[in-house]
Amino acid sequence: MSRPIRVLCAAVTAVALPHAVMAQSSTPIPEISSQGQSAVTGGSGSGANPSLTVLNTAAARAAIDQTPGAVELVPDTVWKTTRAATLKDMLDYVPGVFVQPKWGEDSRLSIRGSGLSRNFHLRGVQLYMDGVPLNTADGYGDFQEIDPTAYRYVEVWKGANGLRYGVNSLGGAINFVTPSGYDARAYDGRVDLGAWGFGRVQGSSGGVSGPFDYYINASGQRAEGYREHSWGEGERLNANFGYRVSPNFETRLYVNANHVLQRIPGEVTKDWALINPQAAWPNNVANDWQRNIDTLRVISRSTLRLDNTVIEFGGFGIDRHLMHPIFQWLDYRYEDYGAFVRAVDERSLWGFRNRLTTGFNMVNGTTDARQYANVGGQQGMLMSNLTQRPQNYNAYIENAFYALPSVSLVAGTQFLYAVREQQVNFSLNGDVNGRSRFNVWSPKIGMLWDVDPSWQVFGNISRSAEVPSFGESVAPNFLNPAFPTIPFFDIKAQTATTYEIGTRGRRPDYTWDFALYRANISNELLCFYNSFGTCNVTNADKTYHQGVEAGLGVTLLKGLAIHTGEPDRVWLNLAYTYNDFHFRNDPVFGNNYLPGAPPHYMRAELMYKLPNGYSFGPNIEWVPQAYYVDSANTLLTASYLLWGLRGVYDTGSGFSAYIEGRNLSDKYYISSVSIIDRANSMSRLFNPGNGMGVFAGVRWRT
After folding, report:
1. How many Å from the N-terminal Cα to the C-terminal Cα in the chain?
2. How many Cα neighbours within 13 Å face the side chain of 121?
3. Which of 197, 89, 180 is nearest to 143 (CA)?
4. ∠66-67-70 over CA atoms, to 5°?
5. What is the pTM of this model?
6. Which tens digits make up the pLDDT trace of 90-99?
7. Alpha-carbon gap, residue 672 to 94, rounded angstroms
């Protein structure tokens, strides 16, 4: 067991603090699972919500459906009957979300074209765990700390719809929510095995004793990987402990620890990816490229319920150590901390229902960033020693006024004050001291119409802003003097105005989520030149992102063999995303396509489901049109169609099992890419996708 997890197990003896109950809609939309039936959430997940700080699935669905914009809630019933080892496994059927694996659990994530030019880590989408940032204080994120076995549901807030978290990015926010003791099994364990040496064991326990409740989940995972030099393993622990001080006050402590080791096979040329996909790039092997992370996170949340107002508040501290041998040996220590408070007041105003939400978030940190020469995978001489201090202060207010019992008019704004400060203690890399400050207003107006208890229509106009991270620091540009070096503190914040309309609904035999949007963007953080093959991100002038997000679930046939009680059914689950991203009269790239995302992306699954818990059927992943990997639009990926099969036995309790086959035609394809300004046939930008693999798992719940 890793040191952070040993420390955590010895330290879990406290009580804690917040995430509040949101006022529920007067016309909540009923939850439907991916098989078209009411989703089994476990414990008290589908009934009353006894915890003040943690919403169960049904209550969270009712709360998120009060948003006048594109949002999704994905219950764990969607992914816990699959291998579910990566973010792609959890969110692949959410339209508008494009997440593709690179190696191990690392992925390339983009929502509505966010962060397309970030070739390492994550930018443009803010990840949260139980309402507290997974991203570092300067905005960059990783995926290795995500444990799909630990969560009850995932909330996806696209764009500025995530105002409640102070989201300041085009892509929005994703929040992973662990259950409380009120919403957890006494025991829940599973074992998964499969291709390329994949193995995982997991166990959790939860319960209630008087005013005290607890939930603890631990998992261990190991995989040799499809590609050479892609071995990885991880140990993860998630726990929370709640105490009900009174009927109207609850406090909760969260603890999270991760120990992850991961080799990096590296990007290759297009021909290499499509001819020899399992091979790693030789330099990655010779210098033993890796990404290893140790994390310890402690969160305090409390909720106080008054007559008409619910107040949540708390704080957190995060210790993250990144050990990352790549072109140099990176040794980064992140010490992030923050606090938050949020109040929701719901009452009658002049005879009309009204809901006022106000809040404040602070996320600050200090990073000890040291880089050494990489000598065959070992630390060599010190190349740089930097101290980076990001600060973020965000205040927001939003009001929903119900002009009619079924129609709410929503208006709000948020203000972000951010600082990025870098102190150079020593550097042979050309690093410079600097400090930048950002003051950004992001207003929003919208409308939400509950057509009936199962159908909503929404629309909004919103502003979003994304402050650059330290990773946007630009290396000296020796190859093209026409583009001089731009230090990180001269890079502007990216801002966007987004127009959005859509509808969503959930009924026993069909569900839908549909949205149209257009974002007009200023100063988009994009790749404008490169040195030594590395994309250097600066500000574009004008760009736009627009698209269609369509999700559909429908019972095509039912009662084929069983006509009494709950019938058997054939259920189609489909998610389609259309992306249209362009420069706008750019002096260098004209009206070219923005690289990095396919114009069309579709996932579909056809499942035959029996009421006794058995279900089986095929699925596809389809990228029908290649997309560009460079801003000059000179090099394309390749289109592909993958298919698989899945069989499940799951009654919602006791024993369950699954078996699935992925990419059963063993097609060679490109799963994700890095971005550059101008590419050629020798550009190493491509990550091959996994070949054919079969996985199986068993689970036991009491």
Report:
1. 26
2. 20
3. 89
4. 135
5. 0.91
6. 999 999 999 9
7. 18
